[in-house]
Amino acid sequence: MEEKTSNRRFISLKLKWAFGTAVGSLIIFFIVAMAMFSSFTQSLFNQERDLLNQGMTNISRQLGRINQPLTKKNISNVIDPDDGQVAVGSQYQRPIIQELSDGHLIVNIYDRKHQPILSTGKSITKPTFTNQRRVRMMRGAAHKVIVGQQPIYSQRGHRRIGYLQVENKLNVYYRNYNQLRIVVILAMCLVVLASGLLGYFLSLLFLRPLGEIHDTVKVISKDPTKNVRVPVPNHNDELAELTTMFNEMLDRMQRYIDQQSQFVSDVSHELRTPIAIIQGHLDMLERWGKDDPEVLNDSIKASLIETKRMKNLVQEMLDLSRAEQVDINFRNQRTVVNDVVHQVFNNFKMLYPDFHFTLDDDLDEPITANIYRDHLEQVLVILCDNAVKYSTERKEVHISLSRGMNTVEIGIQDFGEGIPATDIDKVFDRFYRVDKARSRKKGGNGLGLSIAKRLIEGYHGSITLESSLGAGSLFRIILPIVEDPEAL
């Protein structure tokens, strides 16, 4: 699959943008230009057609005044009453009527026997004689022409006295048509070129963050530990948001890498000591200690203690890895928070009778949260166990349960050693101990609070700490409430 992807030809997004802009502009311009071109050319054509119709009407009206069969002589009298001369041939070089002196109209007049009497130019089409007025398009030598044909009737008696055929060569129309078509084509080419260039330069401007993201990804892919980030654009748009989100993702990834490196380093350090202790005892036993019952007994006890410590460490590491996946594996779990808090409270009262445990429950009804019951119990046990572990003088632990607007809050307070302000933000880190020597004596691995934090945050809750050195600590757990668990 990767080979197929790498073998594909790379086409820059800038070129695609420029091509898309050019094609889109071409389509829009083509539609608009064709609509305007069709409208304009149709208007020109209608003008030419109206001119022919008007000419036919005027000529037939003038010739209808003759009231006798048409001849060259009586037509001449109508055309030029002051000059009785008329052109002898079939061609008549002057316009028939002064108001119809348009040179691109060809007028042909025929008598009743279909013989030509007068013509203003060489006929383009063969004459046809009809009893009704007819205007149609016909093929000419170079292009189509408009041909109008009709009989001529006398104004008195309404007798047919001849025939009229008027042809519009449409030379002006086609000349304007071709000129306009050339202008449209040139304008279309200019629009495509201008829009393509504009699209390309706009893509260079607007897609610059994508190019910087691309370069950053290439650097990160070669060296994931490199601390490079994408410059955030000044303009506030989707690309600026994408750049910000990408940088945040790189920051999280860098934190994960750092945490992973720290995790491996801490695990190696934590396991090194018990392994060295066990190896030391085994070496001693192998050399001479196995013959001394007292040394043998002490070495076995010490090795069992370190083995148990390693077992707890491995178990806590597994718990931590599972805690980071609760949103996937336990997203639909529901738990009545009141029951779990009361259960943990009663268990610790029984386990530590020398401690004074108090529970302030302000809830009037059962409250359900979106969390797996065993996970909530595990978090409460971790916090209560820490409270007991670090309360050396004042052996007292307070547990509170209350409700917010849409949340339930659990508080666990001790009055023990407390935590310095500089260490409060670090206590949830893996393997972190405020006092490593004293914590080791108490049997902790520094993973409990880290597990608790990831479990609670996995269910979209939060866990916070307030502490003062020598005055104790207060852990607060806040979880969103499920209002109607039966409906889910």
TrEMBL record:
Location within or outside the cell: Membrane
Residue ranges of the TM segments: 17-37, 182-207
GO terms for MF: kinase activity
UniProt keyword Phosphoprotein present: yes
Enzyme class: transferase
EC number: 2.7.13.3
Residues of the Histidine kinase domain: 266-483
Pfam families recorded: ArlS_N (PF18719), HAMP (PF00672), HATPase_c (PF02518), HisKA (PF00512)
Annotated PROSITE patterns: HAMP (PS50885), HIS_KIN (PS50109)
UniProt keyword annotations, A-Z: Kinase, Membrane, Phosphoprotein, Transferase, Transmembrane, Transmembrane helix, Two-component regulatory system
Membrane topology designation: Multi-pass membrane protein
Superkingdom, taxonomy of origin: Bacteria
Catalysed reactions, as listed in the record: ATP + protein L-histidine = ADP + protein N-phospho-L-histidine
Amino-acid biosynthesis found in the keyword field: no
Chain ranges of the HAMP domain: 204-258
Classification via PANTHER family: SENSOR HISTIDINE KINASE ARSS, SENSOR HISTIDINE KINASE CPXA
Name recorded for this polypeptide: Signal transduction histidine-protein kinase ArlS
Organism: Limosilactobacillus pontis
